[in-house]
């Protein structure tokens, strides 16, 4: 009788460990971070993008990339990667501290940087989750 109890305990303990590992793995794999909204703007006021657009004059001086993030896992981070003519100009890590979070990064724009721009948004695990393009004229 004693051997059956010990065997049952070991099997139950191993099953519990396997179930716990599966739960942790599935939560990590299924955790999702997505962009609900993305805007390029001339300014941010009260965590809202102001004067948004897809084309800006080369005298703009500075632009903001505003993102509203939805995530199943927090705290976490996202990264804004600013590209000019397909070259990385800046990488800005940003905190996400709630299931829905508004955040932004900014980039000084020199008058000579006329052309095509893009901002890519990456989740904490390095997955590209959204992007937006704009131009400087």
**Global shape:** elongated
Can you tell me the CATH superfamily? Macroglobulin (MG2) domain
What structural class should be given to the helix and strand makeup? alpha+beta
State the CATH architecture.
Sandwich
CATH fold field value: Immunoglobulin-like
Order of helices and strands: HEEEEEEEEE
Beta fraction: over 45%
Mean pLDDT comes to 87
Q: How is the main sheet built?
A: 5 strands, mixed
Question: Helicity range of the residues?
Answer: 10-25%
Count of DSSP-assigned helices: 1
Q: Are there runs of 5+ residues with pLDDT below 50, and where?
A: 22-28
Distance between the amino and carboxyl termini: 84 Å
Question: What is the topology, as strand order, of the major beta sheet?
Answer: 3-9-8-5-6
Total strand segments: 9
**Measured on Cα atoms, how large is the radius of gyration?**
23 Å
How many domains make up the coordinates? 1
CATH class: Mainly Beta
InterPro entries: DUF2914 (IPR022606)
Pfam families: DUF2914
Protein name: DUF2914 domain-containing protein
Organism: Flexistipes sinusarabici
